[in-house]
From TrEMBL:
It comes from the Bacteria. Keywords: Membrane, Transmembrane, Transmembrane helix. InterPro entries: CGCAxxGCC_motif. The chain crosses the membrane at residues 47-67. The keyword Transmembrane helix applies. This is C_GCAxxG_C_C family protein. It holds the Pfam family C_GCAxxG_C_C. It comes from Ruminococcus difficilis.
């Protein structure tokens, strides 16, 4: 049986990074699969088409916010998630992670998904 991060990486084969993270937590989230797919649909290739935050990190932030059941005061936890993701992956912007400018990939999409899920699990 796959653990949650392995499940997320396998979901990446047919979904974008944000959707893969959201679907990996589907059993814990109060939303159906279709809603999670729609929620994450615009974050393929990160925010802004690779120019912004990695979709896996965005999905992880969404999951953390939903599972925390808090409506305020999440900035310190969000910062910890962001820092953990950057430590594991080497960057937070999709363009940097994929090495578009440098020609050196820092982290594959599958590993970004795994690392984002593991970072959420560590904070919960």
């Amino acid at each position: 049986m796959m653990n949650r991060s392995e499940l997320g990486a396998s979901l990446k084969r047919s979904h974008n990074c944000c959707q893969a993270v959201l679907l990996a937590f589907e059993d814990k989230l109060p939303y159906d699969k279709e809603s999670l797919l729609m929620l994450g649909s615009t974050f393929g290739s990160g925010m802004g088409g690779m120019m912004g935050t990695c979709g896996a990190l965005i999905g992880a932030e969404m999951v953390l916010g939903i599972l925390s059941k808090q409506t305020r005061g999440m900035n310190p936890v969000s910062r910890k998630l962001f820092q953990a993701f950057e430590e594991k992956c080497g960057a937070s912007r999709c363009i940097d992670l994929k090495g578009v400018v440098t020609g050196h990939m820092l982290c594959s999409c599958e590993d970004c998904v795994k690392n984002a899920i593991e970072a959420v699990d560590e904070l919960l």
